[in-house]
């Protein structure tokens, strides 16, 4: 049985699941699909064509699905898709996609978006990510799974961040961060592997292989793309293959401090 406050506005056409709670003065658009066991707190807004899975909690004053902040947007049909078990905290803003980016913004499962987070148009967010207060993802940014981004960090449009990467708070990121890596600074550069996160999820043998690969990639002074291809062809480690394949496919480049190959 759902619990809908008398002052909530749910437009005709909205699909509301079982055991949903909607707080005072919340607004839900006619094109919304809201899954079972979701909670929408007071004054939250769900707009546009937005599909939300099960067990999500949208906190007060969050705005989910409002039109893209893109001057090229001309009213075409665009969409926001959110998975299950996400927590979207106060004053978070999530925009749908744009025609030029495939028309869909997509969020996975089990993510925590803290207060004042912004996900721009055409963002792709994996599973189990944590975005701390004030993180802002520009359009077309893509995050893998288990990514952590510290507070007040802006991420430039089209940046990709790989699985298990961590970005320190108050950084400014304008290039791609490979999986398993830690980055920090303005502008952010690689500082090493995200060993704390890796030890929770990845076997020691894989971590040791990543350590060797990281040193060869970023500390040898050799050309990065050539080194990545060489490692890809010789390694048997799945994690190392993921790391070097990401580097080979990077379009914005990898931010790291180049070292002189002569020492």
Task: Put the structure in a nutshell.
With 263 residues, the chain is of the alpha/beta class. It has four helices and 27 strands. It is 17% helix and 25% strand.
Based on Cα principal axes, name the global outline.
elongated
Largest sheet: 11 strands, mixed
| Unreliable stretches covering 5 or more consecutive residues | none
Evaluate the radius of gyration: 20 Å
How many separate helices? 4
CATH superfamily of the largest domain: Hexapeptide repeat proteins
User: In percent terms, what proportion of residues is strand?
Assistant: 25-35%
Instruction: List the strand order in the largest sheet.
Output: 1-4-7-10-13-16-19-22-25-26-27
What is the first-to-last residue Cα distance?
69 Å
Mean pLDDT: 97
Examine the coordinates and then state which fold CATH places here, giving the name of the CATH topology of the largest domain: UDP N-Acetylglucosamine Acyltransferase, domain 1
What keyword list fits this structure?
eleven-stranded mixed β-sheet, elongated, eight-stranded parallel β-sheet, Udp N-acetylglucosamine O-acyltransferase, Domain 2, 4 helices, 17% helix, alpha/beta
Please write out the topology.
Layout: E1 3-4, E2 9-10, E3 15-16, E4 21-22, E5 27-28, E6 33-34, E7 39-40, E8 45-46, E9 49-52, E10 57-58, E11 63-64, E12 79-82, E13 87-88, E14 93-94, E15 104-107, E16 112-113, E17 118-119, E18 124-125, E19 130-131, E20 136-137, E21 142-143, E22 148-149, E23 154-155, E24 160-161, E25 166-167, E26 181-185, E27 188-193, H1 195-201, H2 204-218, H3 224-234, H4 238-249
Helix pairs in contact: 2-3, 2-4, 3-4
């Amino acid at each position: 049985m759902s619990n809908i406050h008398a002052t909530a506005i749910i437009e005709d056409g909205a699909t509301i699941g079982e055991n949903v709670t909607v707080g005072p003065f919340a607004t839900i658009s006619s094109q919304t699909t809201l899954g079972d066991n979701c909670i929408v707190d007071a004054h939250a807004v769900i707009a546009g064509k937005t599909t939300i899975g099960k067990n999500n909690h949208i906190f007060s004053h969050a705005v989910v699905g409002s039109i893209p902040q893109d001057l090229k947007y001309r009213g075409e049909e665009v969409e926001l898709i959110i998975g299950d078990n996400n927590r979207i905290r106060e004053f978070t803003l999530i925009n749908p996609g744009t025609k030029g980016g495939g028309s869909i913004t997509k969020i996975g499962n089990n993510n925590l978006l803290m207060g004042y987070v912004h996900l721009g148009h055409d963002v792709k967010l994996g599973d189990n990510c944590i975005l701390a207060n004030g993180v802002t993802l520009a359009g077309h940014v893509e995050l893998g799974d288990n990514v952590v981004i510290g507070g007040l960090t802006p991420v430039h449009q089209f940046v990709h961040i790989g699985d298990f990467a961590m970005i320190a708070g108050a950084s400014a990121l304008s290039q791609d961060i490979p999986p398993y890596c830690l980055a920090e600074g303005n502008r952010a550069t690689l500082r090493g592997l995200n060993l704390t996160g890796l030890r929770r999820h990845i076997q020691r043998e894989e971590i040791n292989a990543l350590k060797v690969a990281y040193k060869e990639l970023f500390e040898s002074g050799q050309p990065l793309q050539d080194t990545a291809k060489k490692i890809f062809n010789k390694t048997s480690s799945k994690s190392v293959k993921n790391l070097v394949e990401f580097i080979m496919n990077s379009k914005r480049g990898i931010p790291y401090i180049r070292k002189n190959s002569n020492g």
